[in-house]
Amino acid sequence: IVVAVRCVVRTSIGGFGLDDWNMVIGQVLFFGTCVCVMYGCNTGIGVRDIYLTAHELVNARHAILMFQCFYLTSLIFVKSSICFALLRITTNKGIRIFLYIIIFLSFCCGFITMVACLSLCVPVSASWTGIGKCVAPLVIKRVAIYTTVSSMVTDFSCSILPFVILWNLQMDKKLKFTIAAILSLGFLASAATVVRAFYFNRFLASVDYVWGFSDLMIWSIIEDLIAITIGSVPSLKPLF
């Protein structure tokens, strides 16, 4: 809803820009992420192996791989949208360069991780069927660590930079405090990334993998959802 209202507001004032396009794409991909979660939950994600048939296990693992692809690409565009929005309101050269670096890192992190996920098994279908050859569990753990650390860096940067920019803006103190309060919720997205790090070993499980992955899904969804909401709310300012 907040993204739809954002689009209406930006279009009505003739200010629909690159940040809005990125958020729309991120939202569409987030819908895909949610579809994968719903399908996965209906096929066995969150359920222990002994209660699932072989067919359900295959479908659940397939849903997990699709979830990872949609989630990673969604987060790329959502973070880029936040950075492009900040580029609108700052003229500080150092901050602008740093924002472009975050955008670059977000794309690199998401793309590299997605390629890695699709390359862990040969053929790709072996990721969910188990028929084929897959890399050692240690490689999977390293990919998970790389993804989480990269996400932490970009998440905390996107959470802290708005305050740095806001501090130097000339505006009503009450409005500045309100915006700061809203933006502070962005740290919840960063916290979700940190919490997800405690579930690294779930990537290595040979038994109850689809059961354990449910927690990773939950915290990933929370991170993406908060980022979309916080990244869109400031755009609704003309309504108030």
TrEMBL record:
It comes from Aureobasidium namibiae CBS 147.97. Pfam families: Fung_rhodopsin. The chain crosses the membrane at residues 21-45, 65-87, 99-125, 145-167, 179-200. Its main location: membrane. Residues 5-240 form the Rhodopsin domain. This is Rhodopsin domain-containing protein. Keywords: Membrane, Transmembrane, Transmembrane helix. GO terms for cellular component: membrane. It is a multi-pass membrane protein. It is found in: Membrane. Belongs to the SAT4 family. InterPro entries: Rhodopsin_dom_fungi, SAT4-like.
